[in-house]
Amino acid sequence: MKGRVINSIVGYLIYLIILAFVIVVGLKHQSNLFKQSSISYDLFDYYRFEILFPLIIGAVLAIPSIFKNFLKQGVWKLNWVKLIVLGIPILYLAITPYLYLKRLISLNFPFVKQIMGGYFGNSTSTLIAIIGIAAGYFVITSFEKQIVHESVKNTHF
Questions:
Q1: Looking at per-residue confidence, does 150 or 21 come out higher?
Q2: Is 84 exposed, middle or buried (CB count within 10 Å of its CB: 0-12, 13-18, 19+)?
Q3: 42-77: per-residue pLDDT in tens?
Q4: What is the pTM of this model?
Q5: How far apart are CA 30 and CA 49, in angstroms?
Q6: Taking 80 as the threshold, does the pLDDT of residue 1 lie above it?
Q7: What's the rounded Cα separation, in Å, for the pair 134 and 140?
Q8: DSSP state of 109
Q9: 20, 28, 139, 157: which has the highest count of C-beta atoms within 10 A?
Q10: 42 near 117, Cβ under 8 Å?
Q11: Which DSSP symbol is given to 136?
């Protein structure tokens, strides 16, 4: 029992170090992109990273869940309910600014005005970060192992 607790503590400390490393390196890279964009007046790389970085953080936050799934017996399945109800809509909201910057969608698409600041004003970058973290987490955790004889109609929340 004592060995399992120590292994958990060590595992979470390693995870914390990985998470901190990803955040520090990502923020440093974002700062460098901002400096470059202020010199070149080309903001696209900065905004692209600002939109995609929270997705990466969300995926890193899902590591413990994925790790527990790797240790389970069973086959990998996609939790369609979770992906369709949570993952895809939140992912759409997370990448909306990127799609708008690439001119793949216009302001007439659903929720584009709200995400781009029409409703939330100066809080847009915080909103994009929160949505991106949630999207990365929900999409990654939609993949899970299930026991083969488990009912097909059973879904997990």
A1: 21
A2: exposed
A3: 878 888 898 899 999 999 999 999 888 888 888 889
A4: 0.78
A5: 7
A6: no
A7: 10
A8: S
A9: 139
A10: no
A11: H
Q: Which H/E stretch holds residue 78?
A: strand 75-78
User: Which tokens in the block code for residue 79?
Assistant: 């939790």
Sole residue written with tokens 């979770």: 82
Q: What is the pLDDT at residue 72?
A: 85
HSE (side-chain half, CA atoms, 13 Å) at 138? 22
The pLDDT value given to residue 154: 58
* Residues 114-135: tens digit of each pLDDT: 766 655 455 567 788 898 999 9
Question: Residue 101: exposed, middle, or buried by beta-carbon count in 10 A (0-12, 13-18, 19+)?
Answer: middle
For residue 55, count other CB atoms closer than 10 A to its CB: 22
Q: 């069973």: which residue's tokens?
A: 74
Domain boundaries, the chain: 2-146
Which residue, chain included where needed, has tokens 């192992």? Answer: 145
H or E stretch including 146?
strand 143-146
